[in-house]
Amino acid sequence: MVYSVLGDGRSVTHSDKEKLGFTEAIILEVLRVKPVAPFGLPHGVDKAFELQGYTIPKDAIVFANILAIHKDPNYFAEPEKFDPSRWLDQKGHITGRDRLLTFSVGPRSCLGEILAKMELFLFFTSILQFYTVQLEDESKPLDMTPVIGLVSKAKDQNIVIMKR
Question: Transmembrane region positions (predicted)?
């Protein structure tokens, strides 16, 4: 799809985003399934409160479990399934961006979210425009098991990247 829209002669631009909805949907799904910071940033509690029978004391440090929210079937049908189409409406336009919490939400959300999403789009689209990417051994499935820490990363995979 990327190659059919852009060919091999020009760089991707922000204005191409609308024509490449499925490409953006793939990026949103990757951010849902593999958030860079699965537990977000720490937040301080300024006054004690009750949450589902637990007392959260003043000055406690809390984290939002973004990964758990993104895997919750109340918010995402078949959450364990990698499905970029969950971000597309019937016409192929992006929908439901507000369900993605990778960059947090509210006044403490990541200031770089817009820039990060645009850079991801430009980078990912450029790779798909000029290269084919595949597993070195396609008979082995991609191992999507995360290596979780403060920042998550993928397991090492053997891939082949070939110039178009």
Answer: none
The Cα 126–Cα 20 span in angstroms is 12
Q: Would you place residue 80 in the very low, low, confident or very high pLDDT band (cuts 50, 70, 90)?
A: very high
pLDDT of 134: 92
How many beta carbons lie within 10 A of that of residue 69, not counting itself?
20
12 neighbors 4 (Cβ within 8 angstroms):
no
Feature table: binding site: 110
CA-to-CA dists, residue 111 to 115, 116, 142, 150, angstroms: 9, 9, 32, 19
pTM: 0.85
Question: Contact at 8 Å (CB) between 160 and 154?
Answer: no
Binding site residues for heme, as ranges?
110
